Amino acid sequence: MEAPEFGRFSDPAILILASLAGGEKHGYAMMEDIKATAGVTLGAGTLYGALSRLEQNTLIKALPADERRRPYRLTPQGAVFLRQYLTSLEKFVSLGLKRLAA
Amino acid sequence: MIFQKIRPWLTRLYPRAWRERYGAEFDALLEQCLHSPLDVVDVFLGALDAHLQLWAGENVNWRMMNMVNKLRTTILLVFTAFIGFVIAGFGLVGLADDSPMIPLMQTNTPLAVSWYMIHAGAIVAFLTVVIGGLPLVLTVIRKAFTTNRRNLALLLVPVISLLVILAYVGFIFLVWTGRIVLPGVVQVVQPGFFPVGNRWLMEGLMLVFILGAAASTWAVWKAITATDTQRETFHIPARTLTVDIYRFAFVPAVIASVSMLVMLISTLVWGWISFTALPQVFFGNFGPWLTNTQIWYFGILVLMFLCTLMAFIGLARGHKAGITA
Question: What is the ipTM of this complex?
Answer without folding.
Answer: 0.86
